[in-house]
Amino acid sequence: MADLTQAREYYEQARKRGQRQRGETRAIPNLDDIRKEVRILAEVRLGTIEIPLYRVIGTQSAMRGEAFGPGFMPAEDLDTEFARKWMNVCLYHLEDGISDPLKVYEYLGRYYVIEGNKRVSVMKFFGVYSARAEVIRLIPERVEDHGEIEAFHIWLDYMKTGVFPDLYLTHPFAYRRLHLIRMHLEHQGITVFPTPEEGNRILSRFEAAYAPFCEEEPLPFYGDAFLEYLQVFGIPSEEATLAELSEQIRTILPQIRFSGKDDQSDLHLEDEESRPSFLRRILPQKQPLVVFAFGDNLENNEWLATHEAARRQLQEQFGNRVRTQAITDITHENAYEKISAAAKGADILFVPSAWLIDTA
């Protein structure tokens, strides 16, 4: 049975973690500051639901957040009233488990605590993944040049008919990309997709596997990471284990990290004396050859046509500093020979057609 001495030790451990986090950021986010910049059009009550605690990032008021570091770890001295209350919540959690629902606002897929800040702090310290909460969704007014708010309003439409109703993406163009991925899967012969209920269960399981990676480093939002997963692996089975999903996520972490960069959707040329660009770092100093191997007709496949457009943009922007080549006459009979030959001569080989991956 836990006692006050143990609770004090846990508080000190959490406080040290909070102090380290405060060195990175002064305080956790709060809705007071957000409301100064964005007009809220409506509040929608979602009822009491299970929410992942790693997406609880801030408080309703600025004053409440002053006692915590960015990870909701406590930062007040041990002899304060705040510390005593935290330790009491800690004892309650260890003896009975925290069961009282939190009360939170949801804003752009993240949660801000109205009631239960210390409960969140204690549960996060002990590594609890999720908790029940009464959730109020905030609907912001559209703001010019605010991509994430625009993406949110696109999601409000997508969730009515999409395969993954809870799939919130942070960039407006991402929903177009999601549509292209679906078209690609259909082109590969997939005609039966999950129901919305099944889709949300699959998405929830993916998020549970993805969350631990977010605890280790700042990573893109879970929806954006799931989009990268879909492009590489397709729709996971409902029977996929957390261990299997975690291993797949680990293999594409570099791509997930890159997808979170603001400039990842464009090619950028830099001055010769500036820091080498991404492509310059991975390509040799000679004129590199970048090959795109297309196993299907470009005219009838929007997914592949998008990649061909990217190849042309690459050639246009880099000029004679790079050579690109598109291989389009690939069949099942000559696939191995064609891909092998392309791989030998290419510095980078892109294979957008899924049925060619095993050959590549």
Any overview of this molecule?
Helix content is 47%, strand content 15%. The protein contains 14 helices and eight strands. It has helices at residues 4-24, 31-37, 62-65, 81-95, 117-125, 147-161, 172-187, 196-216, 222-233, 242-251, 253-259, 278-282, 302-318, 335-345, and strands at residues 40-52, 56-59, 102-107, 110-115, 130-140, 289-293, 323-327, 348-350. Helix 4 packs across helix 5 (117-125). It starts with a helix and ends in a 10-residue tail after the last strand. Residues 263-278 have low confidence and may be disordered.
Question: Would you tell me the overall average pLDDT?
Answer: 84
The counted number of beta strands is: 8
Helix content range: 40-55%
**Rough outline:** elongated
Give the SSE order as H and E letters. Answer: HHEEHHEEHEHHHHHHHEHEHE
Please state how the strands of the largest beta sheet are arranged side by side.
Answer: 1-5-3-4-2
Largest sheet: 5 strands, mixed
**Which stretches are low in confidence, meaning pLDDT under 50 for 5 or more residues running?**
263-278
Structural class: alpha/beta
User: β content, as a range?
Assistant: 5-15%
Rg calc: 24 Å
> Tally the helices: what do you get?
14
Separation of the first and last Cα atoms: 58 Å
